[in-house]
Amino acid sequence: MAKVDELIANKEERVLCLGNEAIARGAIEAGVQVFAAYPGTPSSEASTALIATSSKLGHYAEWSTNEKVAFETAYGAAISGIRAMTACKHVGINVLSDALFSAAYMGTTGGFVLLVADDPHCFSSQNEQDSRWLGVTAQVPVLEPSNPQEAKDFTKLAFDISEKFEQIMVLRSTTRISHARADIQFEKFNTEFKKGEFEKGIRYKCLPAIARANHPKLVAKLEEIANWIPESGLSVIEGPSNNEYGVITSGISYEYLRDALDLLNKDIPILKLGMIAPLDKKTILDFAKDKKNIIFIEEVDAYLEDRISALLIQNGLTPKIHGKCTGLTKRYHELNSRIVAEALQGIIGGELSSIDKIEEIAEETKDFIPFRPPLFCPGCQHRAAFWELSKVVRKNKGIFASDIGCYSLDPWLTDTILCMGGGISMANGFSRVINDKPVFAFIGDSTFFHTGLPALANAVYHKANINILVLDNRMTAMTGFQPNPTETIDIAEIAKSLGVQHVVEFDPYDFEKGKETFEEALKHEGPSVIIMKKVCANEWWRQTRRRGEKIEVYTIDPETCISCGTCIVQYQCPAISWSIDTNSRGKNYSVIDPSMCTGCSVCSQLCPVGAISKAEE
Amino acid sequence: MKDTYQMMVCGVGGQGILTITDIIVMAAKEKGLRVLGSEVHGMAQKGGSVVTNLKIGKELHSPVTPVGSCKALVGLEQNETLRYLKFLEPGGTVITSKTVLFPISWKKDKKAAQLARESIEENLSKFDAEVVMINAERLAIEAGLALAQNIVLLGALSQVEGFPLTVNELKDALKRRVPSKYLEQNIKAFELGIKSLEN
Question: I need a surface site. Which of A254, A461, A475, B145 has the fewest CB within 10 A?
């Protein structure tokens, strides 16, 4: 929501922006010089902002083909002594981990920050993976801001800490911080871009003997960082001094806790950790030493609870622990101030207004509220392609391995969605054991370049008998229409050069041609690649309207329509609904909303009675 | 937190939920108040159920408003209003449009749709809330811009007792936020919204 002009203005002012944009501003204030990322909700806006501001500020920024490529790009720049950053969603960590775990041993000379945005509650993700554990598994320091302002301030700080200790820094956010909007205090910045200078030596070669020597150095460095945290101001103790209870928390959970205590009208000592790995042992032990009860408030995993409980035992402290181990909060989904207040009430008491009556009425009325699943947009070519395919191969007659992208919304065929690029490889696996059914893989253009390429090479090399449908809508649509290599690299040429014998491109709006294309592909032995190359209908529609050009919409003749529902109930185009009036036979008929119709013509091709035609001027 | 104004705006993606949330936060910031809100991006796109949480005040912490905590709820689609009504505190105010947008499940099951439509007012009235129903579509068309239903509701919201922003403060933010070629219609929609509550 913040404008590019606001993000680049070298002024001290309050600006309304998203948490992700605040992070981008923090990087700008820190003088980030190289940025590379792959989009992924809820991290994308930080990257969008850094890419949008790059031409004006002069830093290098790119949308990379995947998270690992992005990490390595930024890392190469950072070890040349300049400030660099990458960003991804939690599952993006799985893609870049190969680089991260070894880079942690080698460290960096220029400030290097990895932003990871987790998605508790799976608002737009496939799991609730908790990235805080990177502090243990990858042995990297992790900063965890609690709100959008801290997100900006910590980003800036992360570059300083990274350079001070020559170590990679992880900045961990969550959906409620990244997608919060707030008024953020911006500061002035003084950027001097440097020329990269790479110091040659053995440090950056992770050969066994060198790695063996680097690991103890890393362990010592983490100890050094842990000892430094108390003077950094990152650990904050608040509230009264009191030996009965103490709460330890971090990140967004701290804000829920503050509101919860307010609801309960209670005040107890809080230790808020800004750096959650390595642990600030000194402050934690000082805080816990006289407390009878230690309460942990955190979302998803029991990260603080498990690690700090161990720390307390190792140091002979035995307070009563309240946390996930006592069922205080759940090990899944997000928290809010009410959940935290209800959890604390059982321990520290306090008054809380009842919401039983509200919940009761909500329960009574919930069956009347319609489910609104996300659907393909009007005119979406993916809907047309899946429909055509469903007419050629019925669901139970084939195996359909899909992938991550807009096409994950397919309501008819899809059997599996696992991870980025997983469809083609899973199809390979299916084809080895299922011989009486055709096996299909669906993949979008961005996912194809992300991790589809190695899977395709593998399928060709091992002669997998699979049909790969590439849904090339010319952009990374699901995460906000980011550009990707499909703009300049032709997927059909790639497939041919890899040795795929059967490569076909087709226009999914052409219904008859689509059926023929699929039937033809099924006859072919070995991998076939069918490419549906057409610019995202939603983006095309928006841009056409923005240019003020006319869109030739379709209309339905009420008297010809037999109310069969093919276009509404089966094809599910959101632009078509039942009429309020009835026709001369007393039936509700289908109507197209001209403000939503993109003129794709598919409904007119599938209407069994020819009731749909181009609207006259 | 006790002097914090908590509210929600809900509807169906594409109805202008983020636009009025923007206008409210812009006006609040201009007034020197702190704002903190939360919204969900990504999968929740066109046609999905969309909601934004908003807190306006001095010292703000969590961006989410739990069940039973909002002083006002603005609903751009009446079934979405019913979905989020539980977030209102007892006695809070709901400004809801009478607009109905059919989801795919209702297109499939016409009987369920019929029943839900017949019971909507009764269902809304079950909650301890002051429900204000506005024919936002008619008023927006009267203002000359069918898309301005959100702005009609914003006008009505300005009249809710305790809402921390004045008509002029909202109008100033509106002028900065909406495209200049549709400003006149938007101002008209805003004023029709104000009037709808006066009568």
Answer: A461
**pLDDT at B199 exceeding the cut of 70:** no
- What is the domain partition of chain A in residue ranges? 4-230, 233-348, 381-540, 550-614
| CATH fold of the domain at A4-230 | Rossmann fold (3.40.50)
- What are the two backbone dihedrals, phi and then psi, of residue A578, each rounded to the nearest 5 degrees? -75, 145
pLDDT in tens, A198-218: 999 999 999 999 999 999 999
- Alpha-carbon span A39 to A417, nearest angstrom: 18
| B44 band by pLDDT with thresholds 50, 70 and 90 | low
Domain A381-540 coded CATH 3.40.50.970: yes
* Inter-chain CB proximity A16 and B25 less than 8 Å: yes
- Sign of the dihedral through C-alpha B91, B95, B100, B103: negative
Which option is the CATH number for A233-348: 3.10.450.50, 3.30.70.660, 3.40.50.920, 3.20.20.370? 3.40.50.920
Residues A233, A239, A240, A243: what is their CA dihedral angle, to the nearest 10 degrees?
A: -80
Q: Which among A176, A169, A104 is positioned nearest to A142, based on CA atoms?
A: A169
Distance in angstroms (rounded) separating the CA atoms of residues A315 and A287: 13
pLDDT band at residue A473 under the 50/70/90 scheme: very high
Alpha-carbon distances, residue A265 vs A345, A348, A349 (angstroms): 11, 11, 10
Residue A145 and residue A177: Cα distance in Å, rounded? 8
**A336: distance to nearest CA of chain B, Å?**
7
Q: Which of B18, B44, B57 is nearest to B154 (CA)?
A: B18
Which chain A positions have a beta carbon within 8 Å of B47's beta carbon?
Answer: 372, 374-375, 377, 574
Q: Would an 8 Å CB–CB cutoff place B141 in contact with chain A?
A: no
Instruction: Test A368 with B38 for CB contact under 8 angstroms.
Output: no
Q: Any idea what the CATH number is for the domain that residue B153 is in?
A: 3.40.920.10
pLDDT digits (tens, 9 = 90+) for A404-448: 999 999 999 999 999 999 999 999 999 999 999 999 999 999 999
Quick one: CATH architecture of A550-614?
Answer: 2-Layer Sandwich (3.30)
Number of domains in chain B: 1
Domain that holds residue B93: 5-198
The predicted complex's ipTM stands at: 0.95
Same fold, A4-230 and A381-540: yes
Q: Nearest residue of A to residue B128 by CA position?
A: A358
